[in-house]
Write a structure and sequence with these properties.
This protein has no helices and 18 strands. With 196 residues, it is mostly beta strands. It has a 4-stranded antiparallel beta sheet, with no helix packed on it. The protein has a 4-stranded antiparallel beta sheet with strand order 8-9-10-11, with no helix packed on it. The radius of gyration is 20 Å and the shape is elongated.
């Protein structure tokens, strides 16, 4: 429409993300938040920060992570070396190079026993142990033991996986959906997947 959604300029500040009424900005090596539309009312300065999700952001200050409200008030300290939002109200937490899952109340849903966990889609996330990938659900139930060289996130009921050197698709019952593998494949979108 040609209108500015936000007009912001203050030195070398860089916009990292906009979600709802919150703008996440970076100045030098620090991160802070401002509110739209005026970019008034600013938060404290943090070492790192995620965007807000459901009124909560994770921020790092003085080498410690915490959840804050969308009014920049501390909600709770987190026992994490690093943290990121993983969809569906869940957060991937890292402790001592191992990954687990916590909810927005800071409760551990999945213990920190995995080498990596990707984001949750459709209630399922790929996880890695000893260079092999499998799947777990939002309750921490292992749906497929790590047995695949690579696994992607679910889209429209299917996820791409590497199986026997080819790309295939797995369904939510953890069965290969197609006998033939492909040299290239993309996620399903509107019921179709581009494959080669």
């Amino acid at each position: 429409s040609g209108k500015y959604i936000i007009r912001y300029s203050e030195g070398n500040d860089k916009i990292l993300g906009i979600l709802g009424e919150q703008v996440r900005l970076k100045k030098d090596s620090k991160v802070y938040f401002a509110q739209l539309p005026t970019c008034g009312f600013r938060s404290s300065i943090y070492d790192a920060a995620t965007d807000f999700h459901n009124g909560i952001a994770a921020v790092k200050q003085d080498n410690s992570w915490m959840f804050i409200s969308d009014r920049y008030q501390k909600i709770m300290d987190l026992d994490s070396d690093d943290i990121r939002y993983a969809n569906e109200g869940l957060w991937i937490s890292e402790q001592n190079n191992q990954f687990g899952v916590i909810n927005s109340k800071g409760e551990t849903l999945v213990e920190h026993i995995f080498d990596m966990i990707f984001d949750f889609n459709e209630g399922i996330a790929p996880m890695q142990v000893d260079d092999m990938w499998g799947y777990l659900d939002i309750n921490g139930q292992i749906l497929l033991e790590p047995s695949l060289p690579l696994a992607w996130e679910f889209e429209e009921g299917f996820a791409r996986v590497i199986n026997k050197g080819r790309i295939g698709f797995i369904n939510k019952q953890m069965n290969l959906a197609f006998d033939k593998g492909f040299s290239d494949a993309h996620n399903f979108s509107e019921g179709l997947a581009h494959v080669q």
